[in-house]
Request: fold
Amino acid sequence: MRTCAILNMKGGVGKTTTAINLSYILATSYQQRVLLVDADGQANATRALLPGENYDGLTPLLSGLASCYDEVIAHTEIPGLDIVPASNSLWQIDLTCITGHGHNTLRALRDMRDAIDEDSSYDVIVIDCPPSFSGACVAAIAASNSIIIPVLPDAFSAEGMEDLVAQIDGVRKLQPDVRIAGCLINQFHRSDVVLDAEEYLRESSPVPVFETVIHRTDKVLESTWAHQPVLLWSPRSSAARDFRAWAQELVRKEALCNGR
Ligand SMILES: Nc1ncnc2c1ncn2[C@@H]1O[C@H](COP(=O)(O)OP(=O)(O)O)[C@@H](O)[C@H]1O
Ligand SMILES: [Mg+2]
Reply:
């Protein structure tokens, strides 16, 4: 069982898009039993995959109020894909961490991962992280084997990479096995500045850069209005094709999907 966190402290880089589409591909094309954990209080992944609003989800899990992980899991309409929904009460978690009562919070997702591993109830956990180094984010890193960093082809993303690696390193005492699988260039399109940014990232990034890039297309924006993965909304779009190719690269490089 593998746990992948989709992480970047910057917002708007494609974390949620990547988390939703990776989860969808692993469940439908690779027949994996996937648990998507929405660790962002903005609950974008939750809203994309579940009807209605106002789920408790992750908050009781991180605050120790849920006695078992299956109390906080919801089924999506996609076969093989379940979700731990986010709730906007996730800010309470940070308050307990700040006041020093959050010790178990930081290990809560790791404990859930271990319980899932023991029960053999899922094959892959994908965690959609918030754009901040919050309690939920640290808990996500502490539960993960592989970290995937979506980036935009801009200087802010490229220059922020060293800091991000240092932050992830800081969590290693909770999870020594965590490694950065790579950064995924999103919103790629043919223009001089984007090609230069890609070259810069491939030459100077402190972490591996995936060979596959995800093209920018309005089909991704449309898929948010349709509350669907772009793979489902527009399977022949460039982004859908890219996500399929990238998932294949990831599965190969990270030895995901063993045994099924
Ligand atoms: N490849 C893409 N092409 C076009 N729009 C994209 C692409 N990837 C993400 N987006 C859009 O960019 C915005 C931010 O993406 P999102 O996945 O929510 O980022 P994050 O979770 O990092 O904040 C969303 O409106 C999303 O639909
Ligand atoms: Mg997001």
In short: The radius of gyration is 17 Å. The mean pLDDT is 91.
